[in-house]
Prior knowledge:
Chain A is mainly α. Chain A has one domain: ABC transporter involved in vitamin B12 uptake, BtuC. Chain A has helices at residues 16-29, 36-52, 60-85, 93-110, 115-139, 144-163, 174-181, 186-213, 221-244, 250-268, 270-280, 282-287, 292-318, 330-340, 353-371, 376-404, and strands spanning 168-170, 183-184, 248-249, 320-322. Chain A starts with 15 loop residues before the first helix and ends with a helix. By secondary structure, chain B is α/β, with parallel strands linked by helices. The radius of gyration of chain B is 19 Å and the shape is globular. Chain B has a domain at 91-170. The N and C termini of chain B lie close together (8 Å). In chain B, strand 11 and strand 12 form a beta hairpin. In chain B, the strands form 3 sheets. In chain B, strands 6-9-10-3-11-12 form a 6-stranded mixed β-sheet, sandwiched between helices. In chain B, strands 2-1-4-5 form a 4-stranded antiparallel β-sheet, covered by helices on one side. Classes of the chains: A mainly alpha, B alpha/beta. Chain A binds chain B through residues 1-6, 8-10, 30, 32, 210-211, 214-217, 265, 268-271, 273-274, 276-277, 279-281, 283-285, 287-290, 295, 298, 348-349, 401-402, 404-407, and chain B through 92-99, 103, 107-110, 112, 118-123, 126-127, 129-130, 133, 136-137, 142-149, 151-155, 182, 190.
Amino acid sequence: MSTTIDDPGLVEERPGLAGIWDGWRRRLAQGEIGQLPVIIGLIAIGTIFTILSNGTFLKPSNLTNLFLQIAAVGTIAAGIVLVLLLGEIDLSAGALSGLAAGVVAVLNVNMGIPSLVAISLGILTGTAVGAIQGSWTFSFRIPSFVVTLAGMLAWTGALLFILGKTGAINIKDPLILGLAGTFYSGAIGWILGLVFVAGFAVYVFWGRRQRAAAGLLVGSALTTYLRIAVIVVLVLAAIAILNQDRGIPASLLIMIGLIVVLDLVLRRTRFGRYVMAIGGGAEAARRAGINITNVRIAIFALCSSIAAFGGILGLSRANAVYQATGGGDLLLNAIAAAVIGGTSLFGGRGTVWAALLGALVIGSIANGMALLSLEPSVQYMITGAVLLAAVTIDAIARRGRQASGRA
Amino acid sequence: MTVAERTPLLELRGISKRFGAVQALTDVDFEVFAGEVIGLVGDNGAGKSTLVKAISGINLPDSGEIRFEGQPATIHGPNDATRLGIATVYQDLALCDNLDVVANLYLGREDAAPRGAGPLSVLNELSMERRAIEVLRGLSVKIPHVRTQVASLSGGQRQAVAVARSVMWDARVVLLDEPTAALGVAQTHQVLDLIRNLRSKGLGVVVISHNLADVFEVCDRIIVLRLGRRVGTFDVRGVSQEQVVAAITGAEFGGEAAGAAESGTEVVQ
């Protein structure tokens, strides 16, 4: 165990694939499972539905639908991940997304305010709500569970109030409808995909070169090539399939763009480091001089802003806002997506990419069940079982980490 | 060389502290020299923690005087202590388990650019990692890799990381609260080696411990508190564990005489 830092334990014991396999096994044994369970689950779910639906599940038109269906919930889940990383919860995100959609609709349709301004004000509504809920939670030291539960009720009421007697508003603005109704097909789709893949590869290789130039340990080159190869294959395959239908949905691009930005903020900035530190040990972070209250309030404001934006994506897809917008299982699906994607409920562990992976799992179950014309009853029960499995895996992994923390 | 000829790195004179009806410290003197390891011992409630909190600026004493390198110093809060170069490592270590060693060493003092970007400034991971390796190597701390999560380190390694974090920011005096509690034999040895390492670098080290075996192994002088008073000061080379225990419990007052001289005046090193 006591190797020196000149003889780092991160170096694979055996060269090539065998060494990578060793590293994976060690990390698994220590509970560093990351996104592995959700990726396995996603492959299993995709395979099962593809077989049961005689291939319909993987058809371009169906995959396009799947991505359109998960854009709103995946976006809201990205905000939920941030709050979960702190070890907190936000139950108001669903109701708030409905309220934001209502605000945009009222401003744009009833009051004739330009759509871009209306969208901005809708997102700012979320920012303000999040800041208030966060301040309330941390100044009065009430569990965020309760404060945001109160928020959920209040913002549901607020949506009913602003919708008034009509109870529904239809959207005709091309910009708002374009969020979910725009597709990038053919060459544009391929160019977007290549830019994404090239950007990722450059980022990874540049990081390796910087480390090597600084005289620091560089991980296995084979692992790096494998990672890039997997990303290239996945992205290009997705584009090839989507291009056979209408192309890449704008809402999918927006969601992935948001996740990329949030991921970089979390992993590369001082603010992101503070968020992870608070999730891993709030007291340690406080003693290190971090203003943990401000960071927490900022994250609540950010989560609510993202939820508001998710609501606007949903508005664009639904063409309208109703009294039930933002209600139903939207919130629960967003939280489930974050957790299924591998975000720990205990705080401090997870990535924003969990939102995309988890939303894909939940969306695939709903989509596949619909293809097989199964009852919603079955769908809810299966989603519940998957969520329970995800949380159980998280808890078991946590035990593995504690056991490997050789005290 | 006698103490009288040298200026202590940190010196407290006549420190008293009262919590309501409880007189926690009564007219306590305390001093630590550069390149010296002090064992601060005493039974529960003897005032060890109160004294440490007075030095680290967490609880301010009611009366008394603090000198740093012979100059009068004021410690009104933890930041004052940090500015003087006094670092405290508490028993719970205050590490973030989910972060790696580099992130923990720099927690709250990240190297990030540009400065104007505030919270959104980008972490300079390369420079932090290089400095972390240098610091740990300088202290001969052995861990698998600086990018290992603290959660997967052993107790001794975690203690070492916590100590490294406290001294890497130009600390002159380090207070260690029960550094070997809950550690196995091998890990205790690692930590004691680390303490000797700090001494050889010219730091003043104060070890608060219940474990007299460890205290005798690593300390130069032992200061005994009992019921808020300093009742004994011993050079480890001239005293037995029984005498120190006697001073701690107050069973036998011969301890002071046997341990040589009055507080603050006996031979060091």
